[in-house]
């Protein structure tokens, strides 16, 4: 596609500022760990962890869109990359975490205690 | 022969100015690699999540494990160091985009400067990771492992962690590590910890103020559960090993798999950073030699740039799942 050869320096620094602010927020939340966020859950995951994961995905979006320049690529390439990753990763994580939770229950509620 | 006449270069993919998905061959291959490598890392992180969910009640708390900061001994500074590492990597990503941007405008000297900064950032990150590993392997307080495989840590009355050396008894005994020079053959044995099991157990009994902290997380406080003195005395009897620091078999922080995943995933990522730095150095010399100036295109910088951002991208996830969540 057309890579415009005009300088993007201003925008690059803006994205850097954004990524830095998100990281600082994450670190502050990680150190303070506000009780409201830590002990309230949504879909059986703590709100704090939801915030961390959403901010992470948001950071990943900006790295891929601005730094890896996906925003300037053809839609077909964007879908080929992002679609594949999003589908396969959600699929894999869903299966593994559900299975792990099942094994956790078995360890907890039955006589099997073998730690491997 | 009307059938063989081609009016345009349609038949030649990547020939005659035609590019599938509007992207050059080299960049597309880099994207292929990045997608497959991203799936590899997802596999590792998902496996880490699997093990963590399996032992969700006993998994180590990251802010108790990674507490070191350079020149601040004995100060518990969780998160700060790894936040610093994250910034180093994000910043080197920024200098990399700036190099790509300068390349678009064919400004050779600017590309040289930004590539140089990117390489420095990469070296700082790899060095920081080595330091993090050193602290992780060395450990700080030490712990004991029971026959059942649980890790027991020690705390004083105020709930502060205490090191084995602060209470272990001094029992003179023969503890010899077998070496090749001491026999024609021997059964391999492990490096001996600083204190023997007896020394820790006797020392524990002699110090009534020392309590045991289990690896079990109390869901109400999200802190590790501490035992009473009576329970502690009962628990200490099951001691089988003294654990100092971390290796691939056991670690003083808790779950055995925790250290394995830490070494494997951060190690694999560190290897990527190291390869990235090496490739960056190669490209850096090519820029110095004017290769891309002559080619009238700095696309190679863009390609290594894609890889370098990918390494940053992976770190964003490693940071979240090892240190935050």
From TrEMBL, chain A:
Topology term for the membrane: Multi-pass membrane protein
Highest taxon listed in the record's lineage: Bacteria
GO CC annotation: plasma membrane
Main subcellular location: membrane
Protein's UniProt keywords contain Transmembrane: yes
Transmembrane segments: 12-32, 47-67, 79-98
Cellular localisation: Cell membrane
Keywords in alphabetical order: Cell membrane, Membrane, Transmembrane, Transmembrane helix
Record's keyword annotation contains Membrane: yes
Protein's recorded name: Cytochrome C oxidase subunit IV
Species, as recorded: Flavobacterium swingsii
Automatic annotation (TrEMBL), chain B:
GO cellular component: plasma membrane
GO MF, one example: cytochrome-c oxidase activity
GO biological process: aerobic electron transport chain
Localization terms from the record: Cell membrane
Record-linked InterPro entries: Cyt_c/ubiquinol_Oxase_su3 (IPR024791), Cyt_c_oxidase-like_su3 (IPR000298), Cyt_c_oxidase_su3-like_sf (IPR035973), Cyt_c_oxidase_su3_a-hlx (IPR013833)
Chief location of this protein within or outside the cell: membrane
Pfam families according to UniProt: COX3
PROSITE patterns linked: COX3 (PS50253)
Keywords: Cell membrane, Membrane, Transmembrane, Transmembrane helix
Entry's family note: Belongs to the cytochrome c oxidase subunit 3 family.
Protein name stated in the entry: Cytochrome c oxidase subunit 3
Origin species: Flavobacterium swingsii
